[in-house]
Write a structure and sequence with these properties.
The complex is a heterodimer. Chain A has five helices and four strands, in the order E-H-E-H-H-H-E-H-E. Chain A has helices at about 15-25, 45, 55-80, 95-120, 155-165, and strands at about 5-10, 35, 140-145, 170-175. A four-stranded antiparallel β-sheet of chain A has the order 2-3-1-4. The radius of gyration of chain A is 25 Å and the shape is elongated. Chain B is built from 16 helices and no strands. The relative contact order of chain B is 0.17. Chain B has one domain. The longest helix of chain B is centred in the first third of the chain and has 32 residues, at about 60-90. Chain B is globular and about 75 Å long. The chains are: A alpha+beta, B mainly alpha. The interface between A and B is small, with 11 and 10 residues.
């Protein structure tokens, strides 16, 4: 069976039950593909065993790019391209460059981080987000389990594990 | 639920003899350094000729400038404890409930600071403040100063300029009076809550906190002009109040973080976990950058505009052999170090980084105040020597003793605070 195609979905009403369920389901050796919730649930990423996001690294690199760009631009303009004496200062008066440098650093870090996040979480304009269950945008928490990654576990066993850990319904969902 | 009750909420800090011993040893080393510093200054060339108005430089002047730096600095840390306590209530914050008693314990230094500040002013006003000399207001005197004369009413009103600075003294007394009043009000309400319980105390404390914050907004700014900016009487900066407040705030937050970590290390405050420490670290990180923003805003405008009456402040410091290097030490300790070290999440969650950075920040903001006070009072006769280090240690250990000994008299955790449970479940 192909990966990332066929899923078993557990639907949960309450975040505390959900957190317990995640713990119990993982304890049985079943690997969870993803949990969808209408709002951030504290502690969920730890229960799911996620690694820390690498987004800050992207932010730092984009920030560094902004700093470099801003300083290069200003030094080039003020020192070589069109030197001007302002307020009796040297052409390349470093303190004057700080505000623009700061702004460009923040701008590029923020835009870069948002862009990277959009692309990496498939929210890019040309992306086709997969909707597991529309109710995860309203009042239900959806736990998705990939059938293929849990091929060694019996389907019925997965469904039982979801039910016994408090899922109000257990559905299947396939994508083309 | 109600897991906060699993802990011993009546736990008190035991101010043991071994902790006291460490504080006394530090204070003793400070006193020793201070005495050596004074002796070496008094015996060798302590009477060198100064230039200011023909006055000879005397070592007592340096001693008074030192006392003044620490008076202002530790008053700031003390009032920031009360201020941060009030902020928690005004912002209806729940996460910090387990840390409230640490913040408020700093306020016990305020009455002592008030006495020290007033006493130092009465003994050493001529050594610290140029505007206290009556000749600068006397048109017949060759040292008559038109600019200071124009600002004279700010110190002397309603008395005649050059006599007794009644307006200045009244402001000092009123500020300290109200600060101590608000501190007493907040702390006794908080202690009463321990005994009585209920939510009414929380509402009452929030009301008093809001009133205090309004008063503090005005008084912190004016006290910065009075106690620090008026040393360089000719010079002025419109954001000086914010600058001093920012410096106080970062130092105060670092002190709160250090005491919290110290108590954790001693086995107290079981409720406090790395999430609370992380939040304190964020505050230190964020407000270090805030301080830098204010410092740089002040510097850049003066540098860019290049108006002599403003630039003189930085020329006195940057182009001085004595103070020039400390400007850069100041920036490195208070901006570069916390910015780089505390940037990652892991650093803010590990006590060792926070201990290092917070200690260095407390030293760094002392240097900030050193740079505000000494150039205007001592000129090229200043510097960081044994006298300065000793005085800082003496004040620091006295402050620690007062704060910790009063912390040990009440419960470490406000056990009937309505948001205690929220603080226990704090998770970031």
């Amino acid at each position: 069976m192909e990966r990332d195609k066929h899923f078993i979905l557990g639907v949960f009403d309450d975040e505390d039950i959900l957190l317990n369920a995640v713990r119990e389901v993982r304890a049985t050796g079943i690997r969870i593909h993803e949990v969808f919730s209408p709002y951030p649930v504290h502690g969920l990423d730890e229960e799911l065993g996620y690694r820390r996001s690498r987004l800050p690294i992207a932010a730092f690199l984009f920030g560094l790019l902004g700093t470099t760009l801003a300083l290069t631009m200003q030094f080039y303009m003020m020192k070589f391209d069109w030197p001007m004496i302002i307020g009796g200062k040297d052409h390349a008066a470093f303190p004057d460059f700080i505000p623009v440098t700061f702004e460009l650093t923040v701008l590029l870090a923020a835009f870069g981080m948002v862009g990277v996040f959009m692309i990496s979480s498939n929210l890019k304009p040309w992306g086709q987000p997969r909707i597991f269950d529309l109710r995860s945008t309203d009042d239900k928490h959806i736990m998705a389990i990939d059938v293929a990654t849990n091929a060694s576990v019996d389907m019925e066993k997965i469904k039982d594990a979801l039910k016994s850990s408090g899922a109000t319904e257990v559905n299947s969902k396939s994508f083309d | 639920m109600a897991q906060a009750n699993n802990y011993n909420l009546d736990q008190r800090f035991d101010f043991t003899a071994s902790v006291k011993k460490v504080i006394f040893i530090l204070g003793g080393i400070g006193a020793l350094l201070l005495v050596i510093g004074i002796l070496s200054a008094a015996l060798s060339g302590g009477h060198g000729a100064g230039e200011e108005g023909g006055h000879a430089f005397h070592w007592t002047k340096r001693l008074f400038a030192n006392i003044w730096i620490n008076n202002v600095y530790f008053t700031g840390i003390a009032i920031i404890g009360v201020f941060f306590f009030a902020i928690q209530y005004a912002a209806q914050a729940g996460w910090s409930t387990a840390l409230l008693r640490i913040m408020i314990s700093f306020g016990y230094w305020l009455p002592i600071a008030a006495v020290l500040m007033l006493a130092t002013f009465f003994v050493a006003n001529h050594d610290l403040f140029h505007w206290t000399h009556s000749y600068v207001f006397d048109k017949a005197d060759p040292a008559y100063d038109r600019i200071i004369d124009g600002k004279g009413n700010f110190f002397y009103w309603p008395m005649e300029k050059g006599t007794f600075p009644i307006f200045y003294i009244v402001r000092m007394v009123v500020f300290f009076g109200f600060w101590v009043f608000f501190f007493n009000k907040l702390k006794s309400l908080s202690y009463e809550e321990d005994l009585q319980g209920g939510t009414s105390y929380w509402y009452t404390i929030r009301k008093w906190s809001a009133i205090f914050l309004v008063f503090f907004a005005v008084s912190s700014s004016i006290s910065a002009w009075d106690w620090v900016m008026s040393i360089d009487t000719h010079w002025f900066s419109t954001l000086f109040g914010w600058y001093v407040f920012a410096s106080w705030f970062v130092a105060g937050l670092s002190a709160i973080t250090l005491v919290t970590i110290f108590l954790k290390d001693q086995g107290y405050l079981e409720m406090v976990n790395q999430n609370h420490i992380h939040d304190l670290g964020k505050f230190v990180f964020a407000f270090s950058i805030f301080w830098t923003y204010i410092w740089f805003s002040q510097f850049l405008l003066i540098y860019y505009a290049n108006i002599p009456e403003e630039s003189v402040y930085f020329i006195e410091r940057l182009s001085s052999d004595v103070y020039g290097p400390y400007i850069f030490v100041n920036i490195v300790l208070n901006f570069v170090l916390p910015f780089l070290v505390l940037m990652t999440r892991d650093a803010k969650r590990h006590n060792i980084f926070l201990k290092l950075v917070c200690t260095l920040i407390i030293l760094g903001h002392w240097i900030d105040f050193f740079l505000m006070v000494q150039p205007g009072t001592l000129g090229h006769n200043g510097g960081v020597g044994l006298m300065e280090l000793g005085m800082l240690l003496v004040y620091g250990s006295a402050f620690a003793f007062v704060a910790l000994s009063n912390l040990s008299k009440h419960n470490l955790i406000a056990k009937n605070h309505p948001m205690l449970e929220e603080s226990y479940h704090h998770h970031i």
